[in-house]
Amino acid sequence: MSEEILSLHNAEIFQRENLVLSNVNLSIKKGEFVYLIGKTGSGKSSLMKTLYGDLPLEKGTGGIVDFDLTKLKEKEIPFLRRKLGIVFQDFKLLNDRTVYENLFFVLKATGWKDKGKMKAKIIEVLSKVGMETKDFKMPFQLSGGEQQRVAIARALLNDPDLILADEPTGNLDPVTSVDVMNVLRDIHNSGKTILMATHDYALILKFPYKTIKCEGGELFEVVQQKN
Ligand SMILES: Nc1ncnc2c1ncn2[C@@H]1O[C@H](COP(=O)(O)OP(=O)(O)OP(=O)(O)O)[C@@H](O)[C@H]1O
């Protein structure tokens, strides 16, 4: 049986005192690609935030990589995030430094010391997203799709066990979205586990993977029709 990398049992997801999702049961195994879909405001981001320790898991049980979400302490959150690669809709690159420096900054902050190894790692992850020739550019000199590629490269730096992508194509046009999705698919095909929140149904049809839907305050697995 393959290894479970994320599990939630009877979890309740809150935004402060507001219950957003209840009775949440979710299991993701190593190597899976899973979509989290649902209308705006249905709770996708709240669930993602609970998974990376931005919202506490107060009811139910949950485990992600090697961490118990019910017992997660403030000081453990950076260590949890090191095992996760997180990709956001708005890229969140530092605009005052180059692509290379953005990635170098993360490596330094996560304890890397050897400059040669850091350089090799940066080239490795940029090559995975096809951005190795643009390492000297500032983020604002890149298109949205290129910025998201760099953000995906940044998420790969510490060889994460799980990638959480919250609407990674939300700011991109349909053609660029497919481009970025091709990158995520290649990363998945190389063995990575990915949970991606999206409301882009066209992408799901083009890149079909297991799909979980947030609706009416609960989660359901969507059974995809085979044509
Ligand atoms: N910081 C907050 N404080 C209180 N309530 C919030 C907060 N952020 C979101 N909510 C509420 O929680 C519910 C779920 O929001 P969430 O952002 O998780 O939805 P979503 O499915 O990710 O939506 P979208 O697709 O628009 O990002 C909504 O009713 C929203 O109004």
Automatic annotation (TrEMBL):
It holds the Pfam family ABC_tran. Keywords: ATP-binding, Cell cycle, Cell division, Nucleotide-binding. Residues 6-225 form the ABC transporter domain. InterPro entries: AAA+_ATPase, ABC_transporter-like_ATP-bd, ABC_transporter-like_CS, ABC_transpr_LolD-like, P-loop_NTPase. One of its GO terms (molecular function) is transmembrane transporter activity. GO terms for biological process: cell division. GO terms for cellular component: plasma membrane. Part of the ABC transporter FtsEX involved in cellular division. Important for assembly or stability of the septal ring. Belongs to the ABC transporter superfamily. PANTHER family: CELL DIVISION ATP-BINDING PROTEIN FTSE (PTHR24220:SF470), IMPORT ATP-BINDING PROTEIN (PTHR24220). This is Cell division ATP-binding protein FtsE.
